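Protocol step 6 of 9: fold each sequence in the batch and record its structure tokens directly after the sequence line. For illustration, a two-sequence batch is reproduced in full.

Sequence one:
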Amino acid sequence: MDFGAQLPTQRFLVMQLARFGDVIQTKRLVQSLKAQGQVELLVDNSLISLAKLIYPDLLIHGLPAHGTHGPLCLTQLKNDLEVVAQKTYTQVYNLNFSGINFALSTMFSAQSVRGYKLEHGQRQIDFWPEQLMRWTKMRAQAGLNLVDAWGLYADQAMDPALINPVATPKGGGLGVVMAGQNARRSLPPKVLAPLVLAARNRLDHGPIYLLGAGHESRAAKEVAHLLPAALRSEVRDLVGKTSWPELFSVVGNLDLLLSPDTGTMHLAAHLGVPTLAFFLSSAWCHETGPYGQGHLVLQAISDCAPCLEQSPCPHDVLCCNVFSTPQVLAFVSGREDKELPSGITAMVSGFDALGLTYTARSGHDPDHKQRLAFRALAMGVAHLGFTGPVDQRLAQTLFYERDWMLPQQRSWRHE
């Protein structure tokens, strides 16, 4: 045996066909796999240039996952995937529950695909993503961040504290993201404008950059109009005007980003820029809060939160009203000694062995103890060791008898 010969390099393919923020939230998995071999990433064509900025040392593949249908889609798929189909991958990580993801899994041997796959014409879901889907039954008490949900697919997941830089002000002023993809996760201009003023008072310097998609330009103009006249000259309206590199440059130089749950918020976390995020309705900071040390989330808390955005809100999204209270505006302006009203909690980011955590800095978190019990149990499921006594009632709620049967045919790890 030639002991001087190098072992063949492992090659991994990560298929992430979801949105802007999801590409960034795949970072822990990508970084973990990079420690083991070569990593390639498959994304929607519209996100190729973004992916190359996020992962400059990866080979990026694209396909028309969004917005293209019919024969044209099939032709593009054949051309775009020709390079991928000719390669042999040690492991393929198929991260999205969608028809196209299941179909694409058939390009590879079933044994090499983790996540979601078609096998003998039947949809199969691995043990780990099945657990993740099951845990959504108790979202308020579970709260595993999506970066960790995908990152823990890796056999040896990278230390969560090493994924993104510690957030520090960069000197370039305040950024404001107009809205998220879902209107219920966003604030109307009349609510957002006072928060912008409070955040600007918190910094006490620098311009105010308004960011977002082109269809949000009207809201941007309204927010600017609602600001005091003395501040309007500080506004830089970039809504609908930035390319991916330009957005990178603007966000990467900010002191603070004020945002709902958006891809731009995840970009700021990736770049180590502090975020002050507002989460309401179906947005839950324990699931999709900005990843890293040094971020703050104002989380609306109610009996019906987090809700399902696909269902109409029976309360006319009353949870947005709490963001207009004097106590919240004082807190955002930097007077964090002010007690927050009921219905909202200021959450600060941190880490445990499982991944990102959010704990209350101000206000009441009614599910804190239950969330700790869940995370202790989830650590054992993720092969990170149990950190304390197992909550038996919780275990009976979350797990089925077949989960403990051996061998586990849908195990998400190699044995």
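Sequence two, same batch, same settings:
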Amino acid sequence: MPNEKEIKFPDDPELTLLIPDNDEPTPELSIVIPALNEESVIVEFMNWCHEGIAKAGVKAEIMILDSSTDKTPDIALSMGARILKMPKRGLGRAYIDSIPVIRGKYVILGDADCTYDFREIQPFMEHFHSDHEFVIGSRFAGSIENGAMPALHRYFGTPLTIFILNVIYGSNFSDIHCGMRGVTIDAFKRMNLQSQSWEYASEMIVKSVRLKLRTVEAPVHFYKDKEGRESHHKRIGWFSPWHAGWINLRAMLIHGADFFVMKPGIVMLLLGLLITLPLCVGPVSFGDITLSLNTMFLGATFSIVGLQSFFLGCMAQSLYDPSGVTKKRWVETFAYTPMMIVSGSVFTVGLLLCVNFAMAYAGAGFTLFDTMVGTNHLAVMGLLAIALSFISFISTLLLHAIHANMLIHD
């Protein structure tokens, strides 16, 4: 083993950084690679990296995020890689732990198993130099060697999850699960990754959209495992790829909850009001069909669920917003004083309509007569107005609370 330097981290004593003798002092690019017992392929992988660096003509460091129990770190260190020794805490956690010690302006992530061709990093550098912040590799735009991806993943699981993410986020990615991807260190930090395991891949994609990063795809070549090497999914067991797919889907849905409530909420609110308002003065007949109180209750339900869903979407977008622009937009749209006036006014109108019904009901000896038909309908409208005013009141408070809390943490 070379006579390397060893750096400890007081904030996390489980991390140790080993620096080789031939360390690049001023890297522009950092190739950051998690590795777990890759002794059989690490020599070829390191050679691929050195070849790719030379072809790209870039000053680069290779950093291996190592949790191995074999000779993987010793071999990589002897071939010029920095080694960040860490316990086995998950793929996403490995990337999170590496951020403070990455020195390059640009970062390329990937695997140490020679399934991604690191001899071809020049296209990534060209995209970086063209001012892109996030370069996502695409195996479908490049090539997939026969046997590299199970048919079920290639033709069903991967296309399905890509479709779901693109629909939810309005994006146009062709391969969201590609492990070879590039990002500027500034964007990497702004992503503020939280995922500890495989789902980091989806979180990165989602946050690249939320941050409105300048994003481009780069075709990559994807190879099957080298002879004698067993993939990590196979090492863990048959359930591992299903688990990885499930937690990636979970990350997409958690970070995209506004998709399920914002626009559907607007539609439900408008539909509910369209049903309720024409009936507020009495029944409406269309031939043999009469719409009355039962229809009003249906419309009121749509209106209440719709308005609450819309405000939940506003809150979700405010929580997701890394730039602060969306939070500011919603607190300006629902400014405190105007919303208090509107909510109070709607509540007062609703209360008066309900009081009007109560007085008419009492005046009739607490018995409903046909002459109270219009009053009944106005009372339902009053109850709806009270419910909508309360939702608007409390949602405005919550939106401003979220904004204020974010300002404190910023």
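Proceed to step 7 once all outputs are recorded. Observation for sequence two: The first strand starts at residue 5 and ends at 8.
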